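JOB MANIFEST
job_type = single_chain_structure
chain_count = 1
residues = 301
[input]
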Amino acid sequence: MSLTTRMSTGLSALIAAVLMSTALFANAQSDNASAPAASASAAAPAASDTAAPAAASAGADASAPAGPTVTQEEVANPYGPQAVWTQGDFVSRGVVVVLFIMSLGSWYIIITKLIDQFRLMKQAGEVKNKFWKANSIAAGTASLTASSPFRYIAETGSKSTEHHDGALLEQIDLNTWITMAIQRAVERVQSRLADGLAFLATVGSTSPFVGLFGTVWGIYNALTKIGVAGQASIDKVAGPVGEALIMTAFGLFVAVPAVLGYNWLVKRNKSAMEEVRSFSADLHSVLLSGAMSTVQGNKKG
């Protein structure tokens, strides 16, 4: 056998050995890859089996009650404004009744006086639009409202020029007589506007002391009950004393509107009386000039 033949035979054997070893290595790799897949597929049911009880237990925990709920019990307050009447004696109830009457009277006066003032200011506008545009004092007086204070002053002034009789009254000159008559009418109007203001002033100055009296009486009763019971804890002292202090609050609640209403009405009365006094001064001049011209005409005749 030649050298070339031997070399070709060895090379063929070497190639065949390499191919065989490559095939064996590929088979080994495929076996190793299929083994983890099989183990993973085997572990999947186990994982699903363990996950199912876990989910079931989680659902059971979610559906189970969270536990007993704590409810906060609300304790009713036995002391308050209503307890002053329900638990108080005749003195406490009497103080409440007096303060209620004071408050009711104050609001009634405030409302009615405001209505009167609005009406008077409206009637002052009628004087400018009707009275001073009339041809005579009598016609102007008839054009005003019957309840108008301006009509009352005009009628009083007109009568003063007609009636000046009597031995003593004749000694008064006509100017002074008309002035006195109109001034008296203005004072009556002012007195009517001031009706009720004294009550407001009285309520504003005395109602705090009435409430304070109720407070003192309530504290006295509370301390007496504590002394008889022999218990001086904070719950036994704070409640009755706080209830007694409500009387002072009642007194201030009545006094503050009365004082504010009094000051407000007094200020508005001043504005209203300025209109009345201006009208009376103008009326006095007109009546005096008319009366003087009538007297002079009579003397000439």
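[summary]
Helices lie at 3-63, 81-86, 90-131, 137-143, 149-162, 174-193, 197-229, 234-300.
The first helix runs from residue 3 to 63.
exit_status = 0
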